Amino acid sequence: MSMDFFRNKRNSFFTIAIFGFIILTFIFWGSFSKDPGSINVLTTVNGEEISYREFQRVLGRQLEVYGQLFGQGKKINKNLQDFIEKRVVSELVTRKVMSQKARALGIVVGKEDILRELEKIEAFQDPQLKRFSPRIYQLVLESNGMNPRSFEKSLEEEISAKRLSASLDNNIWATKAEKMDEEKVQNSRADIQTASFTTNSAAKSGKLKIDQNEEKDYFEKNAGQYLRAEKRILKIASLDNLRLSQGILVSEDEVKNYFDESVKGSTDKKWGQKRARAYHILFSEKSPSSLSKAKAVLNDLMQESRQENSQLESFFQQTATQKSEDYASAFNGGDLGYFNEEDMVGPFAKAVFNPKNSINKVIGPVETDFGYHLIYIKDRAGNEKSLRNRTGEIRFEIAKSKLKSNLEKIRKDLDSSVVGKADGETALKAMGFEIVETAPVDRSTKSRLIPFNVLQKSFAAPKGLWQEPENFEDNLYVYMVSQILEPESMSFEEARSQIREHILETKLETLIRSLQQEMNSGKLKWMDLKSYGAEIKTYPSVYLFQDNPIPELTKSDAILKALQSLTSKNSISAPLLNQGTWLLIRASNFDSKPDTKASKPEDTKEILTVKRTDVLESMVTQLIKEADIPKSFRDKYQL
């Protein structure tokens, strides 16, 4: 392999796509450039779906990033947008085929693996306790229009793909010649100076000026662009699956038939294990105040249990829905379903399976690594595979199947009698939906009545027609836009800060580009930039091909490309926008002499990474070529 091979491969898009977690890189981009409408699936790969919503989220984030790199924050042209869209599709298909290949090779990702990754994500951590918070996890996902199941499925695929790439490590090695070429690349270095400009620094220098007349002139010419947020009034119909499930009846004959057909001769290990079903209420912070909250709720539950006609189970479920911080079970009344001892953390399992703790009673608070739990034990079974011992779980499985069938029927009824119609309220109420009308809302409104995905879609929906149902936390929502309140124009004072910032940003960009041209022509010296508000910094002997050559600067592809494009003849970079700051980069004293020291272990690691990328690229190309992907989709995105 030549030195050029290492230069080209080191920062290839493929390397970045494969070794970066797509779902973690782009997950917190909270708005969509297009509304998916009724589309839920982008495409299928070997029978497995790729979510259209995830495609939109990744695409939106990359459009934003590329807009900064190539459009200086402005709208990018259609050719570049089409290129980015194809890249996003390629990334998602790549992840899918790699995760499928990983499964085929026996690479398994368990719930514990996913939990470990979740615990690493700073956005899901309690800022005070510095640990994973299920409550914050739920809120972050909801605010970004996601649900835990789809997020964790994407995360599972990411982990599988990463493990597959890691499994190649033991089969790839570096030759002596490759080590020498890599060493030459590693030792490409130069003295670097940066000049950074902000609108504030340029304005303070006196080189960037703006007056009120200029602001007013701009406002008069562009007043139509400055509008208050559009607001809408919605009708939200919601179906509580918990209440729906409580009305399902299972007969003794159904239980016996299920046992004879699906349990007695089954090889499923669960029918021969100790099993239990429980509801729980989680307080996720392990702190004195959290423990106090748990004890207060426990006291309310105990008071209910002492009532003459106590409805403790129902009361516990209602309390879990309102107060539990376990995102995955709270909406379902805290119901964890059936599980064995190994499925739960030690203290929780010990409490549930302890025969001294009675069925249909509340125990706790039980402390685990997740916080404090209040637990209602619904059922407990020994390891005997008998009808009597397994009746509870069989009833649970039958009820779950019936609930699924009921929901499928409700969806069909919605399609025939509600969706696309203006007069569906009577039908909705007959199906058990509760209907409320909201106050005026905009896209940023936060309300438990309105799931984020419903809110966002409602701003692309027509007025006066019931829209297709949406799932959120296993509940079903149908909505209608009852009123559209057109955006009102801002006053000059309301819009003034935006106007001023826009004018200054436009003037600053023009100024920076003018300064670069003057320096290239020799009319302006580098240090003269200080008089224009630039902050000059010097970084001696920077290794240009390191992953993060100037740690003080935000790591980005744009900075890496700018550094690696500099030569003795072209020593000043084009202006680039980085984190809201304009940068010019200058290089001098280039040196590419090989280091006389012996090859370091990290040099070999770099070579292996590049070679692994090449092997991965070949493997993924073949996997995509062989994958079952709809022809129209394959042709459209040139897969």
Q: How would you describe this structure to a colleague?
A:
With 639 residues, the chain is of the alpha+beta class. The protein folds into four domains: 3-175 and 606-637, Orthogonal Bundle (Triger factor/SurA peptide-binding fold); 188-226 and 494-591, Roll (Chitinase A, domain 3), CATH 3.10.50; 231-242 and 404-485, Roll (Chitinase A, domain 3); 244-402, Chitinase A, domain 3 (Roll). 48% of the residues lie in helices and 16% in strands. The protein has 23 helices and 16 strands. A four-stranded antiparallel β-sheet has the order 14-5-16-15, with helices on both faces. Strands 11-6-13-12 form a four-stranded antiparallel β-sheet, sandwiched between helices. Strand 15 and strand 16 form a beta hairpin. Helix 9 (176-186) crosses helix 22 (601-626) and helix 14 runs antiparallel to helix 15. It is globular and about 95 Å long. Residues 1-38 have low confidence and may be disordered.
How is this fold's topology laid out?
Layout: H1 3-10, H2 13-19, H3 22-26, E1 41-45, E2 48-51, H4 52-70, H5 78-104, H6 111-120, E3 125-126, E4 131-132, H7 134-143, H8 148-166, H9 176-186, E5 189-197, H10 199-204, H11 212-222, E6 231-239, H12 241-246, H13 252-263, E7 275-283, H14 288-305, H15 312-323, E8 335-339, H16 346-353, E9 362-368, E10 371-381, H17 387-417, H18 425-431, E11 434-437, H19 452-458, E12 470-472, E13 475-485, H20 492-520, E14 535-543, H21 557-565, E15 576-578, E16 581-591, H22 601-626, H23 631-637
Antiparallel strand pairs: 1-2, 3-4, 5-14, 5-16, 6-11, 6-13, 7-8, 7-10, 9-10, 12-13, 15-16
